[in-house]
Structures are given as structure tokens and as C-alpha cells.
Amino acid sequence: MLATTDSALDPLADHKAIRNSGWKARILPTFRPDAVVDPEFAGFSQNVTKLGEQTGEDTSTWIGYLRALRMARERFRSLGCTATDHGHPTARTANLSPREASDLFTRVTAGTSDARDHELFRAQMLTEMARMSLDDGLVMQIHAGSARNHNRQLYERYGRDIGADIPTATNYVDALRPLLDQFGNHRNLTIILFTLDESTYGRELAPLAGHYPCLRLGPPWWFYDSPEGMMRFREQVTETAGFYNTVGFNDDTRAFLSIPARHDVARRTDCAFLARLVAEHRLDEDEALEVAYDLAYRLVKRAYRLEEARDGA
């Protein structure tokens, strides 16, 4: 199965064409709302207006804006989407009152906000996205800990998100608390956490995922999508989070032809880690074989609700 990552404003014409063609390949969209939830995204206010035009909602109001986002998510779901993806610079979340959120929305869309308002709005929108996921079942992915578009000359020549992502120190314990206070114990919500700050694996991410039913750990990403990076991930998170609070391996790359090799590396690295546990008599061989299969196949299907998507189709 392949999933594309698509702007909330994308008409998804290619996905409609695939579905109408009768081709049986599983190629699903993923809802990426950055363009309409990040005040620092180029053209943010215009994007919010376009969202309203697409959905027929009045996105000049907070309530209309939230309704429009729900409608956009439903459009993605109708084409098989099972997940959202959020590329925020931090993992900060917030839990503002409706009045506070409405006032903040007015400032960021009017262009009278500052950097603190922008971060607070992104934080509130992660909580709003979690609230919507409880209703529509979409799995949340949060890719934090990355300073994106760091190379200014590269950005100016080719545009955003074409590389130059640099790891940054990231706080998850305090940042996620407002969202987790609201939804952390909901077992029908799945939030998959990714990071470029591997120093958080054992100190923050593994304990959080081991405790909160809604949290899962995504596989090593970007710089750590490598044999050494994958092994460090297993060594640092398994003792606290176990295997089954991770999602196995799902690839995240623009290098399409590298996908089979990346999955092969992940399987080999996980099996090397399991083999060590067998050699040390911490797992029986039949247990290790079952875990290996789960890490390569079952966990990712379960985490991304892919069987449900097939049944729904």
C-alpha cells in the first residue's frame, strides 16, 4: 500500500482518477493541513479563504473554519484516507476556551498576530485535530523536532520541504500535556509520534507511549532511517515502551525507488535486535518470530487502520 501526503486544499484529482479507473492498487491520500493551520505557512490567510470556498463554509469565523476542516477531512476519507500528518516545528499543544480560540483565530487571519500567537495557534490546532480524529477515526501523525527549510538559498530556489531539515531539541512531556489531559486515555484515538530529536526516545517518548493508550511511536525518521539509527531506536525505547507501542515500520520518503531497500533494512535491523534477545534467553525463538512478523506487517496495518479502510471501500 502507498499513501501520498496531500494538502488540505488538494482536489485529489489523481486519487479520483485511480478510483474511477478500476485499478486495484491501494494508493490512498493523507490529510496534511499545514497550509490552513500554520499562520507562518506562505499564503495562510488566502488558504483559509480558499478552504471556505471549497467547502461552502464561512471560514472568516472560528466555528465556520472548524466546520470547513471537518468537511475537508471527510472528503479525504471518502477516497480511502486513514491518517493525518502534521509537520509542526514543535510538539506543543494547547487547550484554549472557545472564546480564546476564536479571538486567536481572528488575530492570525487578520495578520495582527506575532510569533507567540502563531505557535499557540498551531498548538491549539493539534488539539482540535485530535478532537476531530475522535469523531472521524483518522490516525494522527505528528512529525516534530525538525527545523525545516534551513538552507535559505535552497528554499528560495526550489521552495519549501525539499530538504534541509535539521534536528532541534524538542520537549514532548510538557508540550503534549494539554492534548493528553483531554484525550490521552481514549483508546479509540491513535496519535503516532515521530521526532528528529533522538535524545527524547528513552527520556520522553518511550515513557509517554508506554503510559497513554492513544500514543504510538513511529519508526526512526529522516537521519535515523538507517541501520544504526534503527538499532538505537529499538535499544532506547523497547525496555520502557515495548514492541507493541510502536507501529513497526512505515517508510516516509520522496525517493520512491528506495522504498523496498528501506523496508529490507528495517526488517534486518529488527531481526538482529530480536536475535540478540533470543541469544540472551530473554525471548524464545518462537516469540521472536512472532514479534518479527508483527513489526514488519501486522502493527503498521493495525496502527493505520488499513483493514478498516479496505472493509470501508
- Distance separating the two termini: 14 Å
Q: Kindly report the average pLDDT value.
A: 94
Strand tally is 8
The major β-sheet equals: 4 strands, parallel
Q: Which of globular, elongated, flat, extended, rod-shaped describes the shape?
A: globular
Q: What labels would you give this structure?
A:
alpha/beta, 313 residues
How is this structure best described in words?
- The chain has a four-stranded parallel sheet, with helices on one face.
- The protein has 313 residues and is an alpha/beta fold.
- Helix content is 52%, strand content 11%.
- The mean pLDDT is 94.
- The chain has helices at residues 13-21, 34-37, 44-55, 62-77, 98-110, 115-136, 152-158, 177-183, 200-211, 227-241, 259-279, 285-303, 306-312, and strands at 2-7, 27-32, 83-86, 139-144, 146-147, 166-167, 191-195, 215-217.
- It is built from 13 helices and eight strands.
- Strand 7 (191-195), helix 9 and strand 8 (215-217) form a beta-alpha-beta unit.
